[in-house]
């Protein structure tokens, strides 16, 4: 028994691999990537062909879009009507296509919202004059035809484009394992470069770029990509294009008159407004959209005064909004070999010239065949006119006049049929003269066509003249200008925020808030039930607040973003991830270059700068290594470096003062031993480091023990000054249970 169903015997893996490969090739070749010849995807090609079959030329009346889409999906493209209609709408949008192929009547969307177009039952459409460059030579034998999806009709496999439409309108699409992003270009520039390559086949990409400045999007925004990068993009087929909005100054107003391609004015205003709400643009007082029919783009940004640095403001907005956009460039197209490939500019133009040459050759050959066929018929008619009486006799008397005519005059069947189809009124003497005149004209045309087909030079001349003809008819000036501009730069937020005195309050439950001013009763504030005061710091609103957890992790937030002290604040746990629920025990707010003393109650520490504690991570930054069973202490500010000394006091009442220079400067770590605490007492928890302070010989400080305190001046520290890691001396009786130490204010 023969095996007739081979597919049942293959493995599932092989079947899946083969099916996926077939699907991938279909998506690549028949859906997502444009053909280098006409620059169209299949759905676009079918829409244009269906419209031409409906007689919707640029001179005809508009017809309902639903009628067009019905023909497209019913005859050529069996997919969703909405997707097909959207493809047609895109070809009609002057803000999406550089040279639209469809002339729409009705709501076809707006630049602000391209997908706001009306349903196809409401809109009407026809082809634009430019679409004629794709269709003019279609009936002249220039393309191959294939069956449609159900085999009842034939459709063109490509259109005979007279211009390199693949570059003019560009294309974008995502296939399987590859994508394409061909930017649009100016017709004059591309046609001129093509003419140059036609005359100089060895011209390199750099030479062609003397004619093609860069992409030309359907917007009047500026391309700010350096020319070297644009050249590299054309040489490799990969790159990116950066576009920037165009604006002008009018007093305290900045008026934006052009947006980048596919940028929405309403979205730009929302992006700027959100920054204003977040108090990131204090120099902007108002936003307005004054766009209308006369001014399609007119966005007004009003500054608070004429002292505003508008140049810096716009550079910031270019960086943080769609006033500046980047577009990928990936010149991946299907070549004449029906294979997808990323091509450089020269390869695309070379292939298109080969395509155009073959199209013209097929058009000429088609016409030559028509001329030969007509000359053959005219030769037979002329023979009949020379012996008209015999022709009439044969037709009247013979049973098979066709066979008798062929035999008598040595005619072909085609010639005999032409004679038999001739009307009686055309048997006049005048017709013989018309035939001879037509013969002479057709013979001259035949010789002309044969001469072009046999001469490469004449073929190039014909292609050149036709390119120039279309260039003069459809060429226009660039819309997108190239400009050399300063790079966009985001504002430093700390420079935008006003520098106001702030008090940052931290509670034991990890809630934080900030109050204006430094004269705040932090302990007497209202706290949540079960919560109470933990720590506070005096700083400024334009600085960063750092919260230190017991395990030595630092967490930072901009002070101006902290909630107001009018309420009870917000929990830091919503902003950070605290390991083992180790909530912060202290808060610090100093200048980034401020020097801090970092230590743990195990008696180890180092000094470093404030900005080493900054972190953007939710898990914080491990800045202090704390031995197990001990805790980090609040960083102490070191005001004066050269003569600064470190004061260390233990829970047993021992105090040691030593020069800061004996401590290492680190970015993070455990540090060195500050004061000598017997290991046995330290391990048992009997004695720990209770307080630290950084002082200078000009300072005096207070040591608090309960309700009592003792003042130390520099002259009082003679017996306590020593070297790092020494034991120090015990404090006076009654001050050995230290609560805190602080520098005495003047």
Could you give the topology of this structure?
Blueprint: H1 12-32, H2 42-53, E1 63-64, H3 65-76, H4 81-92, E2 102-105, E3 124-127, H5 132-135, E4 145-147, E5 154-156, H6 165-168, E6 171-174, E7 179-182, H7 187-199, H8 205-208, E8 222-223, H9 227-236, E9 238-244, E10 246-250, E11 253-258, H10 265-277, E12 284-289, E13 299-303, H11 310-320, E14 324-330, E15 332-334, E16 340-342, H12 345-386, H13 388-397, H14 401-409, H15 413-420, H16 429-454, H17 456-474, E17 481-482, H18 493-496, E18 501-507, E19 511-516, E20 533-540, E21 544-548, E22 553-558, E23 570-571, E24 586-589, E25 595-599, E26 604-609, E27 621-622, E28 636-638, E29 645-650, E30 654-659, E31 672-673, H19 679-684, E32 689-695, E33 701-705, E34 708-712, E35 729-730, E36 740-743
Parallel strand pairs: 8-17
Antiparallel strand pairs: 1-3, 2-3, 4-5, 6-7, 8-9, 9-14, 10-11, 11-13, 12-13, 15-16, 18-19, 18-20, 19-23, 21-22, 21-24, 22-27, 25-26, 25-28, 26-31, 29-30, 29-32, 30-35, 33-34, 33-36
Q: Care to describe what's here?
A:
The structure is a single chain. The chain is α+β, with helices and mostly antiparallel strands and 746 residues long. Among the domains are: 15-182, Topoisomerase II, domain 5 (Alpha-Beta Complex); 246-322, Gyrase A, domain 2; 367-472, Topoisomerase, domain 3, CATH 1.10.268.10; 636-746, Neuraminidase (6 Propeller). 32% of the residues lie in helices and 22% in strands. The protein has 19 helices and 36 strands. The strands form eleven sheets. Strands 14-9-8-17 form a four-stranded mixed β-sheet. Strands 10-11-13-12 form a four-stranded antiparallel β-sheet, covered by helices on one side. The chain starts with 11 loop residues before the first helix and ends with a strand. The relative contact order is 0.06.
